[in-house]
Amino acid sequence: xxxxxxxxxxxxxxxxxxxxxxxxxxxxxxxxxxxxxxxxxxxxxxxxxxxxxxxxxxxxxxxxxxxxxxxxxxxxxxxxxxxxxxxxxxxxxxxxxxxxxxxxxxxxxxxxxxxxxxxxxxxxxxxxxxxxxxxxxxxxxxxxxxxxxxxxxxxxxxxxxxxxxxxxxxxxxxxxxxxxxxxxxxxxxxxxxxxxxxxxxxxxxxxxxxxxxxxxxxxxxxxxxxxxxxxxxxxxxxxxxxxxxxxxxxxxxxxxxxxxxxxxxxxxxxxxxxxxxxxxxxxxxxxxxxxxxxxxxxxxxxxxxxx
Length: 307
Fold this sequence. Notes:
Layout: H1 2-10, H2 20-23, H3 28-60, H4 73-85, H5 91-117, H6 122-131, H7 140-157, E1 170-174, E2 186-188, E3 198-202, H8 212-222, H9 227-235, H10 242-246, H11 250-266, H12 273-281, E4 298-300
Parallel strand pairs: 1-3, 2-4
Antiparallel strand pairs: 2-3
Helix pairs in contact: 1-3, 5-12, 7-8, 8-11, 8-12
C-alpha cells in the first residue's frame, strides 16, 4: 500500500488516477477546479495517510501472518473456510487433501518434464522453464499482444465445447502504472445491465521477468473458459434472484477457474509444454526452491472489493 501511495504522489496531476473526472468533462472551468481540489485537498490527504502507514502503523503491525495467531483464530479460520466452500471441514483435513492433490500434480509434471527435458527432478524442470528464452517476453507490448491472442483463441474454441456462451464480451487492459509494481492480473465483471464488457486487467511491469506459460494459464483462468465465461452466464440468467447476482460462493468461483485451467489443456489452448508443467506446479514448492511470490489472480464482482 505504501508503494502504491508513493507512486500516486510521484505522478503529475494529469497522471493521477484521481484526475479521471477532469478527463471525462469538457468544461475548462471544471477541469481547473478539479486540479485545484486534487492539488490542495486530495493529494495532501493521500500524503497524510501514507505518512501514517509508514511512520505509525507499520511499526505496530503484528509480524505473524496466519490468522491462527489471533484470539480464537483457529475457530475463525474454520468459519471462513465454511463460508467460502460451504463445507464444515477442518483446516487440517483440507490441508491433507491438498497435499494429496499437490503430490498428484507433481507426479504428472515430473512425467512431462522427463519427456521434455530428460529429467523428473522438479527443481531442474523449473530451472529449465524459467531459463528458456522462448518462454519469456521482450517488451510490454509483447505481453499485451500475447494475452490478447490467447483470449481470442479461447473464445473461438468455445462453441465446440459449450452449448451456452455468454453475450457479454471481455476486453484486456493494462493495470494502471501506479499499481503495476504491486498488483496481480485480475478479472472485473461488467455491470448487470450488460452495458459494458468485462475486463481482464494484466500487469505489464518488467516483461522480461514474466513467462508466457504463466500468462497463458492466467488468461484462461480469468476469461475463457474461466471467470468471464462462468460469471457472465450466471449474470445473464433470466429471472435470476438478485441475491444470486450480487453474492457468490468463492469456493465454486475459484474452483471453476482452476478447473478451467485444466479444461484449457483438453481444449488444446496451450501453445507450449511449459504451460502444461506450470499448471501442475502452481501451488507446489516442495522441490527445495522455497516459497515463491503468490501470483494467483483476483476475482471482482461488479462494484466489489478484491476477494
